[in-house]
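Hey team,

Filing this mostly as a record. A colleague (T.K.) asked me to run one chain through the structure pipeline before their review meeting, and I want the input and output archived in the tracker in case anyone asks later how it was produced. No errors, nothing strange. Just documentation.

Input sequence:
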Amino acid sequence: MSNSNFFIFPRLTELTERLAGVEAVRQRATECATGHVLELSARSHNNLFYYPRTITSLTALVSGRALGAAPRQHARQVLFPVDIREGSCDQIPLKDHRFDCVVSTFALGTAPNVDLALQEIKRVLKPAGRLLFAEFGLSRDRKVATWQRRFGWLNRAFHGVALPMAIFEDALASNGFSLRSSACKYLQYVPRALGCYYEGVASNEE
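Output structure:
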């Protein structure tokens, strides 16, 4: 990929996210974080300024292709400690029961196995720790779900990740999380088949 593509594509993605209301979704997912926080995000610096100043620390798990100067430059502009680590959702290179909260914003679509990723999240959370999430998933509306299955390739083109072909609330329950709140929503100005996501809070306490 040329240098111009590296410069242009992230900015096109950010413009698309602003139009679709993704920034507001990210802010809602992060503003309730407390204590020691682990963030799972393909581009973690997008969320950095939404966190409350009162969190104890933030560990950001970033894929190798997203590592670069930008996340570290942004990390120097906040008051809480930030530790940027390379890793993936389904193989988190951190110790058990370390975090009070895990924040996942549109990150689990990058995981080859969503169930394995959720088990990893459960492992690194403290007992009764919280998962604050906003994740693409299969709609409960049958008509929308049919179009999601038909045009899965468009989700890869539009979001840059594969759409998890599961209802996200069901995936959480089957992996031992207790839902505190959850809602199936749709991004603004985006066809429902491309913009269906689940937003809410799940607890590590069964």
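Quick notes for T.K.: The mean pLDDT is 81. The helical segments are 3-20, 22-30, 69-75, 114-124, 142-150, 152-159, 168-174, 192-195.
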